[in-house]
Amino acid sequence: MPASVPLCLGLDTAGVQVPWYFRCPISLELMRDPVTVSTGQTYDRSSIESWVATGNTSCPVTRAPLADFTLIPNHTLRRLIQEWCVAHRSMGVERIPTPKQPADPDLVRSLVAQGPGLPALRRLRALARESDKNRLVMATHETRAALLEAAFGSGSGAASEELEAEAMAVLALVGLGEEEAVEVVGREERVARLGKVLAGGGSLEARVNAGAVVEAAALASGADARAVLGAAEGVMAGLVTLVEEKASARAVRVGIRGLFALCLAKENRPRAVAAGAASALARRVAEGGAGEPERALAAVERLCHAEGGRDGVVAGAGGGPAAVTALVRAMSGRAAEHAAGALVAVVGGSEALQVEAVRAGAMGQLLMMVQGGCSERAKRKAQHLLKLLRSAWPTTDCTANSDDFLQHY
C-alpha cells in the first residue's frame, strides 16, 4: 500500500484529485472540520477562526459583512469528506477523524446555575481540560464569578476544602479577566488564602492551581495590584518552591510564569530576589529545563538589575562562567533579547567574565542578532553588549573581518 497522503491535498497529489468542494476556500486544503458562517459559505474551522482572529469581519469569499461569528458545523459535508477518504484509502488517503465540538454554552450555564457542588465542578473541570475551545466557551464573567465564590468560600471542614480546591482547579484552567482579578486582589482574605496555599497549605496540585490563579490575577491587573500580590505572605516563596519542584513539569512552568508576572512590577523584584527567585530561575535556565525559557529569562533579566539579583543569578547558575555559558547559549532562541540583557549585568563589572563570554561564542550570536530580524530593542541590547565585549575580542587573523564589522559598534 502506498504511503499515507497528507491531508493538505492539492488539486492532484499522488494521483488523487480532491473535489474542489471538499477544500477550504481559505487554505485550499481538504477540510477536517467544515463549518458554515452567516453568509452561507463553508470553511475549515481552523482557517475561518484564524481569519476572524486577525480582525477580519467579512466573509472571505463573498466579502459580505458577517452578521455574527457563529460557526455552525456542516455535518453533512464532513460525512461526505470522510466517505471520500474511505473510498480512496487504497491510494493512501487517511480518513479524517470526527472533530470534537466545543462545549455547549447552555450546558456550561446549567452547571454554573447548579451552584457550588462537587459533581458540577468536576464536570466543569473535565470540560476545561478537554480543549482550548471549551475554555473559551467557559471564559465568561458569569462562570468565573461563580468559580471565585466557590474557590474562596468561607466554609470549614474536609468537604468544604475539597470543594474549594476543585473550584480553584477549574479557575486555574479558565483564567481571570480584569473584573475578576479585581475581585481577587481587592479582597485581603483572598490574597491571604492564595499565599497560605502556595506556602504549603495543601497538596502540590493545590499549590500549582493557586500559582496559576496568582499569575492570571497579576497579568489581568496593573502594577499596584501586582505589588499587592507580591507582598502577600507566602506568595513569592511559594512560587519559588514551584520552580524548584523536581517531580512536576507543570509546577515548574506555573512557578516561572507566576514569577514573571509579578516581576513586571518593580516593587516585587527585591522581594523575588529575597525569596530566592533569581537563583532558582537561573538554575533552571542553566540546566536547560526551564519549560518557559522566554519568561524565565525575562524574569532573570529584570532580577539582575535588582539589589542582590546579579549575585543570585550567578550563584544559581553554578558560578560566573556557568552563568555566562548558559546566557550565551540562550541567545540563539526566542529569548535572545532577555539573555543579552541579563548577560550585560553579569559580565559588566568583570573582565574575566567578558573574556569568558567571547570564548563561549557571544560575539557570533550578537552579530546574528544585529544583522537578523530581531526587534529594535533587542538590537540595541546586542549593540551595547558588543561594545562592552570589544576589549575582550581576540586579535587574530581569523577574526579580522569580524573586527572590521565591530568598528561600527
UniProtKB/TrEMBL annotation:
GO biological process entries: defense response; protein ubiquitination
UniProt key word Transferase: yes
Superkingdom as given in the UniProt entry: Eukaryota
Catalytic activity field: S-ubiquitinyl-[E2 ubiquitin-conjugating enzyme]-L-cysteine + [acceptor protein]-L-lysine = [E2 ubiquitin-conjugating enzyme]-L-cysteine + N(6)-ubiquitinyl-[acceptor protein]-L-lysine
Keywords per UniProt: Transferase, Ubl conjugation pathway
InterPro entries from the UniProt entry: ARM-like, ARM-type_fold, ARM_PUB, PUB22/23/24-like, RING-Ubox_PUB, Ubox_domain, Znf_RING/FYVE/PHD
Function as written in the Swiss-Prot or TrEMBL entry: Functions as an E3 ubiquitin ligase.
The protein's name: U-box domain-containing protein
Organism ancestry: Eukaryota, Viridiplantae, Streptophyta, Embryophyta, Tracheophyta
